[in-house]
Amino acid sequence: MIPSEALANDGVLGLAFAGMSKINHPNIVDAVQNSNSELVSVFAFHLTNEAHEDRPEFHFGGYDLSVAGEGTALANFPVMTLPSEFKTD
Questions:
Q1: The Peptidase A1 domain covers which part of the protein (predicted)?
Q2: For residues 33-66, b (16+ Cβ closer than 10 Å) or e, as one string?
Q3: How far is Cα 5 from Cα 7, in angstroms, rounded to an integer?
Q4: What confidence score (pLDDT) does residue 66 get?
Q5: Nearest-CA neighbor of 73 among 38, 33, 42, 39?
Q6: What is the pLDDT of residue 30?
Q7: Which of 16, 34, 43, 84 could be 10's S-S partner, Cβ–Cβ 3.0 to 4.6 Å?
Q8: Do residues 40 and 57 lie in contact, with contact meaning Cβ atoms separated by under 8 Å?
Q9: Phi and psi, residue 58, nearest 5°
Q10: Are 35 and 27 in contact (CB under 8 A)?
Q11: How far does the chain reach from its first CA to its final CA, in angstroms?
């Protein structure tokens, strides 16, 4: 078994911002935006385990108001790099 400390990890689907990334290639959001400059550099997801709800969804370049609901706005959160013992070469 490979210890988790030995693997580069940038969170869910490698979504870490470029300045915080532990890997040296664009994350999936950057790659999608680079292939289509009209897309906004955002992602949205809807997760559920309720049988009566639709399937989980993941969106790049925007969000689906039919899932989010009318009047929904993007939320912005400050991002900061925290010290880490894990280093890559």
A1: 7-66
A2: beeeeeeeeebbeeeeeeeeeeeeeeebeebeee
A3: 6
A4: 79
A5: 42
A6: 77
A7: 16
A8: no
A9: -135, 125
A10: no
A11: 22
Q: What angle do CA 57, 63, 65 make, to 5 degrees?
A: 95
* pTM, two decimal places: 0.48
Q: Are 26 and 33 in contact (CB under 8 A)?
A: no
Q: What does the pLDDT read at residue 89? A: 54
- pLDDT below 70 — which residues of the chain? 1-14, 16-20, 52-53, 74, 79-89
**Rounded to an integer, what is the distance from CA 6 to the centroid of its chain?**
22
Helix, strand or coil, per DSSP, at residue 6: helix
* Distance separating alpha carbons of residues 69 and 84, to the nearest angstrom: 38
The token duo for 30 is: 């950057």
pLDDT of residue 6: 54
